[in-house]
Amino acid sequence: MSEVTIYTEHLEDGYPDWHPASDSFRGMIRLFTYREITGDSYRTLETYQELAEPFGLDHVPDEAVLSRAWRTDSTTGSAST
Q: What are the sequence ranges of the domains in the chain?
């Protein structure tokens, strides 16, 4: 996954420029792509801290952060943070 090119130019972070987002947007996209491929739960992902570095993250966020970050807005179909 860390070697795969993921085109994110049409994806938006959702945070305003002034917001100090603590996790890399591209790293989180890679992590969520990994989750979709493996079917791992958020709880399981948070135990795989070894995924952080290859995905460009300082650490794998905990279950609550992952769940909140990937909540889908049913009216727009976009990920909300």
A: 25-69
